[in-house]
Amino acid sequence: MTTIRQLILASPAKANELFTVLADTSNNAVKTRERILGDLKSELEILAKLEEEHLFPVLRRHKETKDLVTAALSDNKQTRKLLSELEQTPKGSEEFAPKVAELRKVFQQSVRDERKELLPAVVQGLSDEEAQAVVAKIEDRKAEVEEAKRVEAEQRRAEQRQEREQAERLLAEQKEAADRERETEEAARKTAEQVARAAEIAAESSHKITQSAAETVQRVATTSSSTGSLFFDAMFGMWGVPSSRSSTRSGDASSSRRQVSTQEEEVIPLAEETLIVGKHTVNSGTTTVRRYVVEVPTEQQVTLFDEKVVVERRRPITDKASGETLTELTIEMVETSEVPLVAKGVKVREEVVVRRERTKRVETVRDTIRRDEVEISNVGERSSNKRAALAYGRK
User: Are 279 and 188 in contact (CB under 8 A)?
Assistant: First the structure.
């Protein structure tokens, strides 16, 4: 079980370690100094508060130790003052290190005074029951503070882990969106290549059709015609009409624009344009989400207690003398007032999720296409006889 001597001797160990680490930092380690100074402030506040709440009230009840309380309170007050000045000093300035050394000197002098003066008086003036009660209260309070720190650290780690997971999730979504965009661009590129290839094929087909038609015209033009009608010339050629009859209309062949084929079979290609619709991704807008920090005034009510010393005179319960009387006696009772201590914590209020949603729509693309059609005209026998009769009449 821890004794009060062990408690007083071991209490400054952590603070001295933090002083050593803080003194070894450079002016460039601003963040490190802020973190170590926060831990040092918390440790010094805990040490002073535990003494003032649990040790000093017991020491005031004993004549041998009550005079030491005033000096200890003065040391704590001086330590708090220097600590406040150190907090307001820029962490990267040249004045920071000397102020750390000054605070360290005052604290170590206070520790030496406690070990030299306060500790012997406590060991001699307090009974074992009182000393053990003080140790138990201080250790219980230290355990509560450590537990609160552990819970706060776990909460801070959980918040950092949540922020890290959220950042990783956002990066994954951005990567997925970039992959989709690349796939869309690749699909658009392939579609454009297909459109270009189809256009080349269509142009080549059109060229072949034009070339075939030109060859047909050339072949027809070089073929001897026996009549002035292309239709009759084709029919006479198919039926094997004697050349004497075919020569009767040879005079009109030069003025006809119709093509007469002497082949058994002619293929007339009928071409048609096809509408090829591709897709291309364009930028239709950019949404920017920027997180920034604002300061909002807030307030919170806290209940504080003040302790004031009340002196009153009353009639004794009995006139029988008890304790020391007719001697000088001085009693000091310290008045205390609670002041609010403000600290700030960070928690996630809400989340803003930025993502892209894909929707589907159908658009109708309208255009005109060209295609070949064929017109077939067939002149019957009756018309042929009528033409022949007219020709005979003219003769």
Answer: yes
